[in-house]
Task: inverse folding
């Protein structure tokens, strides 16, 4: 009997320890993935064949360490219960008459509630029991009649990891006394930057678009990513039509160059199936002798090499007769704290700020190089962030400041009707990019996006950002049937 009781007590203590690990895990997610939603976490678990978290090495240390501290605090009452008694009038009286079974269950319930709150599971659950009619009313499906090219300019689209306007000086719409990215700031002032205010600004983050592959899908297909992204035939967003699809159908060659493993987040699958992109990632670099087999820095190879390889590839493909769409995804400014290349100096006290400052120099150098090439006169350069940074607490902003994702269009074929005080999202980058390289779009609407070069209102401007954000988060029968198929 005593053995059975001892085993049960050990089991209850284990429940408390597991609960503490759960609380520690949710705390870790809050610190390192502050912008994450349940959809993003589940997407990466279900759709990623090779999983690498930048903060994994921190997780190995921090989660158990914090769990030990919390466990010690929660087990103190039990320690007294098991070991200490006082004698009053010749009777043993326990100081802490705690029922260990009830205590462990309460701790477990609280830990589950904390974790669900941290990853916003309650919000996800609520959205899944509500259906939206947003797609039925506003989604514009692509066909060859509603998109035509008057000319076909080359496209270089650079997605800069976690790039938002908060990096710029306060005088130009940012949050910094001294700009983290002064070169990019000047470039944006000299070129086209669609802004949510009358200074440098950008597009608002919206659910289903706020991690890397989701941001890239939104900017190239005008739709968000929900948890289920593949249908029974294992096809990624089969019913969606992307920028790559349209350009490929119009004689373009599509390329994607990244310094990490393209399998992460199913990026290779999306770009191969939508536009037949040539994927040049970390594994490609090894297979083609661009880096040594055992070479590994940050997420694969650093952005200084990425831009160097991009220069070499652009020289080659620019000699082809076909127009090209060359997409680059950087990684040095990924949380946590980013990567500072050895070629850069530390200008700021913050390591993460220095990673943005270093990226600024490399990005400016690359764009300057492109401008010197013969193919530039017939090339549009688009620079956007993929999403807001997920590093919690890095930007100290006031309540009236809206953090937005950066965008810049260099050498587009057209001029905007109005590029200031616009309200828009990453979905609008899709038709806007097409327009910038020579496409005419019927009614200036495609998927859930609006061509920002036109005077047409975006869905944000038409129905309001708050309502748009609420509706895009809900389950959609239309999305499941016609986009996921």
Result:
């Amino acid at each position: 009997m005593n053995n059975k009781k001892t085993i049960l007590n050990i089991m209850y203590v284990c429940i408390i320890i597991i609960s503490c690990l759960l609380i520690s895990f949710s705390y870790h997610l809050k610190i390192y993935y502050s912008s994450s939603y349940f959809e993003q976490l589940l997407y990466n678990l279900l759709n990623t064949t090779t999983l690498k978290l930048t903060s994994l090495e921190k997780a190995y240390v921090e989660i158990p360490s914090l769990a030990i501290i919390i466990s010690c605090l929660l087990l103190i009452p039990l320690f007294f219960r098991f070991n200490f008694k006082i004698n009053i009038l010749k009777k043993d009286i326990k100081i802490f008459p705690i029922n260990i079974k009830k205590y462990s269950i309460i701790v477990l319930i609280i830990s589950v509630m904390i974790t669900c709150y941290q990853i916003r599971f309650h919000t996800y659950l609520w959205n899944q029991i509500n259906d939206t009619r947003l797609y039925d009313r506003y989604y514009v499906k692509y066909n060859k009649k509603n998109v035509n090219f008057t000319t076909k300019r080359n496209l270089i689209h650079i997605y800069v990891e976690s790039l938002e306007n908060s990096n710029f000086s306060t005088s130009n719409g940012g949050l910094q006394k001294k700009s983290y990215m002064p070169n990019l700031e000047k470039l944006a002032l000299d070129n086209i930057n669609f802004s949510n205010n009358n200074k440098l600004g950008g597009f608002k983050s919206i659910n289903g678009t706020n991690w890397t592959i989701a941001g890239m899908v939104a900017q190239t297909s005008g739709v968000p990513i929900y948890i289920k992204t593949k249908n029974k035939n294992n096809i990624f967003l089969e019913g969606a039509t992307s920028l790559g699809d349209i350009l490929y159908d119009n004689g373009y060659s599509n390329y994607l160059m990244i310094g990490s493993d393209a399998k992460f987040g199913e990026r290779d699958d999306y770009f191969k199936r939508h536009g037949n992109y040539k994927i040049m990632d970390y594994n490609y670099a090894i297979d083609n002798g661009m880096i040594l087999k055992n070479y590994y820095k940050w997420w694969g190879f650093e952005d200084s090499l990425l831009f160097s390889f991009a220069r070499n590839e652009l020289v080659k493909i620019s000699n082809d007769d076909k127009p090209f769409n060359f997409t680059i995804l950087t990684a040095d400014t990924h949380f946590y704290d980013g990567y500072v290349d050895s070629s850069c100096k530390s200008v700021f006290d913050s390591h993460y700020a220095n990673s943005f400052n270093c990226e600024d120099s490399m990005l400016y150098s690359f764009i300057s190089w492109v401008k010197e090439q013969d193919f530039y006169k017939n090339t549009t350069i688009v620079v956007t962030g993929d999403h807001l940074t997920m590093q919690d607490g890095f930007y100290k902003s006031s309540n009236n400041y809206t953090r937005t994702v950066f965008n810049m269009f260099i050498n587009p074929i057209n001029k905007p009707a109005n590029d200031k005080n616009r309200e828009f999202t990453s979905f609008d980058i899709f038709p806007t990019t097409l327009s910038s390289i020579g496409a005419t779009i019927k009614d200036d609407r495609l998927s859930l996006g609006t061509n920002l070069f036109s005077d047409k209102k975006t869905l944000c401007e038409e129905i309001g950002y708050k309502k748009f954000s609420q509706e895009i988060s809900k389950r959609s029968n239309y999305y499941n049937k016609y986009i996921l198929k």
